[in-house]
Write a structure and sequence with these properties.
With 926 residues, the protein is an alpha/beta fold. Helices cover 34% and strands 16% of the residues. Strands 2-1-3-7-6 form a five-stranded antiparallel β-sheet, with no helix packed on it. A five-stranded parallel β-sheet has the order 16-17-8-18-19, with helices on both faces. Helix 3 crosses helix 4, helix 5 crosses helix 7 and helix 19 crosses helix 21.
Length: 926
């Protein structure tokens, strides 16, 4: 995988779906061919492209003219990737439209690059960590002389959302592995007991669950159920597993985990297909070339057609209807625990197959399958020698006719069910009861002649062994995240369960580096190389505290500069010097926060536990309560504060020598404290006003007599979310002193009070909960601004508690008078990146910092306050890295002025001979 740069004269390596910096002129794949890539008119080229790219006419063979733009370009490059005349021969694919090795054709424009080239050796961090995690836990469980509470695995990640992604990935990896392995065991058991009778839809769910080696405590919400309730639990499990088995048939459902067909362990056939193909009487009126075709030919084209329909879920099964899915989902959530309870908001529903081209702008046609002579199946039918007894080439019109006849004939004999919808014509689905589930030998993958010419495709030996042997031992394996964005009650519950090894896998952020008792631990993993040796020492030190040997795993991903550096220099991380902690007393914000803390003590203001005890939340603008106002405006208390602060700060030379220090700094800070106290409350007021406004607007919709049902449904959802947000803001939750809006925690995050463990000036994202909880729904996830500007951007995905949430709304900052959105204008120097704040309609003529006149004016700018999200789907095992929205982020710098002086410190760097190397500028830490 390469970037093409410098006008097309240079190729550089790139990482799949990754990379930062300036975008390349072109991206693609470079194939070292050994010999020059053939010309378009060369016979040798026809041996490299898929069969359906070749046209036979007039006794000769030639490349389809429509495919010529999709060919790679033949070049020569040297070992540095520079295009030369005497280098090695290569072929550059800007998009991989076909594989020159196996001749697989990639026709779909919607198919991702990852799905096309992942099997070429793409590395997946999440998959690797999941495989390591389950291997570690299974190995620990097999050790006989190990305490039960030590059979667990703790893994660290430096990003909260990465920990959430990894937990969701692991759980889906385990669940998919369990379902597929039990399906394999079921068809294998059927083969051993009755070799001539395949499994069918009649008892598929019951037979698969019969091979599932799980205890009731692994799947039941209440393991103590009995009698009628136990039957309900067993039925819910059986229905949930049966649905997952049918949904797993969808092509491309899992990219990173090949299914049982791709590992050759499952064969899906169709009842009486050979008998139907041999019945000449049934085909007598089908016309040429079907009527005079050999039975084997008819069976092949019907098998291929049915396989294509099945892979698009064109199946007539009750499990694939929306009504049945909702019933199964409701029962599973009532009786089953994760991961067996269905949590996807929308299930996998049956599609419909139609003969003919896809109509334009037809509602509801997006997921259906349309078969025409120009499509993949039609082109396959038109390949030479598809009908050996037919002397004439099959035209597009012939293929259209053949497809229509095949669908109608198979529906007549009961292989297909007809589906009639208004304005859609007659559609077809495979009768679920006609699909036969048989065991495969695992030697070759199921053929897919439409996309690959390989008759005996290779299988992945790891997953073949995984489904046959390993996955059956994964029952009871579960992972959860442990981060600051997890609610306190969930964190405490997970700590307790993990300490007893009831929760065997825990993925955590640095929250678990110290301070939490997790009892015996023998293995620690790290999803990435920690930032510093101090982090490594803290994390690795969690294992082996009782004196026993411990194993520490660190995963280094290719393409990550930090990981690669320490992979080659592991001694620098393992034996690196741990720098002692220190406080930067020359930081004005830090010192000011401590002054505010002294001020609060001496004025006698208790912040209580909730903002409702400080503010009149029912009044417009949420003003301070009278008793709070009287205390912060107390001048005599302010005078006492000045003396107390002076006694502390004047004894600290690091403070009094700072560039921002001036003799009247303490007096000015105490005088400004009431104003800064009010400013610190503005974010809370904005969130509260917005939530209350959404609640009022939604209630107005419900009052409208003529409002549509969808509008009312949306309004009820908004009411639920708004009430949940108000509960969180007011502190109407359990353990209020652990919430993000607990007053002392909130003021620390706003920078008004010291808060070493809280993000300063964070941005909040509201996460709606899946189901109602005792104290409302949802939660706020807060991130520091420098991270949130990218993680919380419009359309970005937020990973939280096993699901992906999409940012779909942004809180708009209101003007002080409430008349609209508060927009501003800024100017950024394109020479040095300095931020020049807007100064009226004319602005600056030159940069304040470097005096350059190249200023970029940015108008209609607004401050990002908070965002709202909607649940998209469950995290699955295809997610190797977090998906990030492609926003362009422009960084600007501004030094805070201190009266007539700037907070900027300047320095110059010279070499030994006195030559200037660099000019350095240093500003206060934000």
């Amino acid at each position: 995988m390469v970037n093409r740069e410098r006008g097309g004269e240079q190729f550089t390596p790139r990482i799949l779906t990754g990379g930062t910096g300036e975008p390349a002129e072109a991206t693609g794949l470079l194939l070292i061919t050994g010999t020059d890539w053939p010309d378009e008119s060369s016979e040798a080229l026809l041996e490299l492209v898929p069969e359906d790219w070749v046209i036979e006419a007039g006794g000769g063979r030639s490349l389809d003219k429509a495919r010529r733009p999709r060919l790679p370009r033949g070049l020569r490059v040297d070992r540095f990737g520079t295009v030369t005349d005497d280098g090695v021969s290569v072929a550059f694919f800007d998009t991989l439209h076909f594989c020159p090795s196996c001749k697989t054709s990639y026709e779909s424009t919607a198919q991702s690059e990852f799905s096309r080239v992942a099997s070429l050796g793409t590395e997946g961090r999440a998959s690797a960590v999941s495989v390591l995690s389950q291997t570690v836990v299974r190995t620990l469980r097999e050790v006989s002389d190990l305490d039960a509470e030590a059979r667990k695995f703790l893994a660290f990640s430096d990003n909260r959302q990465d920990a959430s992604l990894q937990a969701g990935h692991f759980n889906d990896f385990v669940l998919v592995g369990l379902v597929r392995s039990t399906l394999y065991q079921a068809v294998l058991r059927q083969h051993h007991s009755r070799p001539d009778e395949p499994l069918t839809d009649d008892d598929l769910g019951r037979r698969v669950v019969g091979c599932l080696k799980v205890e009731i405590s692994d799947y039941a919400r209440n393991p103590e159920v009995d009698y009628a309730a136990r039957k309900k639990v067993d039925k819910a499990l059986r229905e949930s597993v049966a649905y997952r088995v049918w949904a797993d048939l969808r092509r491309g459902w899992r990219i990173a985990m090949p299914n049982l067909e791709q590992t050759g362990q499952l064969l899906l056939t169709y009842a009486s297909l050979a008998e139907f193909a041999n019945d000449e009487h049934k085909w007598a009126d089908a016309g040429l070339p079907l009527a005079d075709a050999e039975p084997d030919t008819r069976q092949l084209i019907m098998q291929t057609l049915l396989d294509e329909m099945r892979r698009h879920i064109c199946i007539e099964s009750a499990y694939l209807t929306e009504e049945r899915y909702e019933d199964i989902k409701r029962a599973s959530q009532e009786w089953l625990r994760a991961p067996w309870a269905l949590t996807d908001e929308q299930g996998v529903y049956a599609a419909t197959c139609y003969a003919g081209a896809r109509p334009k702008a037809t509602p509801g046609a997006g997921g259906d399958l349309y078969l025409s002579g120009l499509g993949q199946y039609g082109r396959w039918l038109r390949r030479p020698a598809r009908f050996p007894l037919h002397p004439h080439p099959v035209t597009v019109q012939d293929a259209d006719t053949i497809i229509a006849i095949l669908l109608k004939k198979m529906a007549t004999v009961g292989l297909l069910a007809t589906v009639e919808e208004r304005h859609r014509g007659i559609g077809y689905r495979i009768q679920a009861g006609m699909i036969e589930w048989r065991v495969g030998d695992g030697e070759r993958r199921a053929p897919d002649p439409l996309r690959s010419n390989t008759a005996q495709g290779r299988v992945n030996p790891y997953f073949r062994r995984f489904y046959a042997e390993t996955a059956t031992g994964l029952a009871g394996l579960e992972a959860r995240e442990h981060t600051a964005q997890v609610s306190p009650e969930n964190r405490h519950d997970r700590e307790q369960r993990f300490s007893n090894a009831e929760l065997p896998v825990l993925y955590c952020s640095p929250t678990m580096e110290l301070g939490v008792d997790i009892k015996s631990l023998n293995v620690v993993g790290m999803r990435n190389v920690p930032p510093t040796p101090a982090n490594y020492a803290q994390r690795s030190g969690r294992a082996g505290r009782s004196g026993q040997p411990a194993v520490v795993l660190t995963y280094c991903a290719t393409g990550n500069a930090h990981d690669n550096y320490y992979f080659g220099r592991s001694q620098d991380m393992v034996a690196g010097a741990v720098a002692p902690p220190r406080l930067e007393l020359g930081n004005q914000d830090l010192v000011r926060a401590h002054v505010h803390a002294i001020w609060l003590v001496l004025i006698g203001l208790d912040l209580k536990a909730s903002m409702t005890e400080l503010l009149e939340v029912e009044l417009p603008g949420q003003p301070l309560r009278d008793e709070v106002t009287s205390k912060i405006d107390n001048t005599s208390a302010a005078a006492r504060t000045v003396g107390a602060v002076r006694a502390v700060l004047l004894a600290t030379p690091e403070v009094t020598s700072a560039p921002w220090w001036r003799p009247d700094w303490i007096d000015a800070t105490i005088t400004d404290a009431p104003h800064r106290f009010q400013q610190a409350l503005q974010r809370w007021r904005g969130l509260y006003t917005e939530a209350q406004g959404e609640l009022d607007a939604a209630n107005e919709v419900l009052k409208v007599i003529g409002a549509s049902e969808p509008a009312k449904r949306r309004a009820r959802g908004q009411i639920s979310e708004a009430r949940a947000a108000l509960d969180l803001l007011k502190g109407d939750i359990d353990e209020v002193n652990q919430g993000d809006f607990y007053t002392y925690r909130y003021f620390a995050s706003e920078g008004f009070l010291p808060g070493y463990s809280f993000p300063r000036l964070p941005l909040a994202a509201f996460i709606p909960a899946e189901r109602k909880t005792r104290n409302g729904q949802g939660d706020y996830v807060q991130r520091p601004r420098f991270l949130a500007i990218s993680e919380f951007g419009p359309g970005a995905f937020i990973y939280h508690e096993g699901a992906r949430y999409e940012v779909n709304r942004v809180s708009l900052p209101a003007r002080d008078d409430g008349t609209g959105v508060n927009l501003t204008e800024i100017e950024r120097c394109e020479a040095c990146g300095y931020l020049n704040e807007g100064n009226g309609p004319t602005g600056y003529e030159e940069c304040e910092h470097c005096h350059s006149s190249t200023l970029l004016k940015m108008s209609s700018m607004m401050k990002l306050l908070a965002v709202k999200t909607r649940r998209r789907d469950r995290i699955n095992a295809d997610e190797e890295e977090r998906q990030r929205a492609g926003h362009e982020i422009v960084t600007a710098i501004r030094f805070e002025p201190h009266g007539e002086r700037s907070s900027e410190l300047k320095s110059t760097l010279y070499d030994d001979e006195g030559h200037l190397l660099a000019e350095l500028s240093y500003g206060d830490t934000a």
